Amino acid sequence: MDKQAREQTLKILSEVYAGARPALRYNTAYELLIAVILSAQCTDERVNKVTAELFKEHATPEAMLTLSQEELEKYIYSCGLYKSKAAHILSASRDIIEKFGGIVPENFNDLKSLAGVGQKTANVVSSVWFDKDAIAVDTHVFRVSNRLGLAHANTPLKTEEQLKEAIPKEHWSEAHHWLIWHGRRVCHSQKPDCANCPLAECCDHYKNGR
Fold it and tell me: Is 138 tagged catalytic?
């Protein structure tokens, strides 16, 4: 994608998805962190249903640790990967208390030191809660950015690096949400709705007839 097409793509995304925000529901940094951990290979809609119950009495790391792993698994079973997610949540909660005074750390490397927190999750928390410039590459961002031609990469990390080069830094966090919502509404995994896509004329995937 050349510079003109890239600028046009970002302009259209910014107009169509102006004000786009996360679909996950949360009130604190800790709730956001747990919700993002639960969202791996799970829909935000499902996560919101689970956390609505989970956070009634377990919305802090201290309260979360009153649950055994088996008890937590019952809460989050429908999110999938419930055994590993439960173990990660309990371990991360313990570290937040013991290493960071009960507060979700703002430092990126500290965030990544928590169980269940990889590059994507740390970027989401950094961007959404701590208002830092970051691009979190989930399945939607990976798919859409590579189809459009904003990136040409075979891993999320390389995609993130290329998006940071293609998108002005002040728009990184916004663009993350634009791409997610475009993936949900139009550029679906199996059957992208190219006929009704406002980006079709800019899109490498569409222009190449795929």
Answer: yes
